[in-house]
Amino acid sequence: MRLLFLAVLRPHTGNAVTAQRIRDHLEAAGHVCVLKDALDYDSRSEVAELIRAAEVEAALALHAYRAGRLLRGHGIPFGIVFGGTDLNEDVTQGEKQRVMGGVLAEARFAVAFTETMKAAAGLQWPHAKDKIYVQTQGIATSPSTAFRWDTFLQRVEISPRAGDAHVFLLICGLRQVKDPLYLVDAFSEWHRQEPDVYLVIVGPEVDPVFTREVKVKLKSSAGVRLAREMPQGDLHAALRHCVALVNSSVSEGMSAAILEEFVQLAKRLLSDPALARDLGASGRAYVRAHHAWRAERDTYQHLIRSLEGDADHQAFC
Question: Which of 44, 79, 111, 254 reaches 20 to 30 Å from 193, CA-CA?
Answer without folding.
Answer: 254
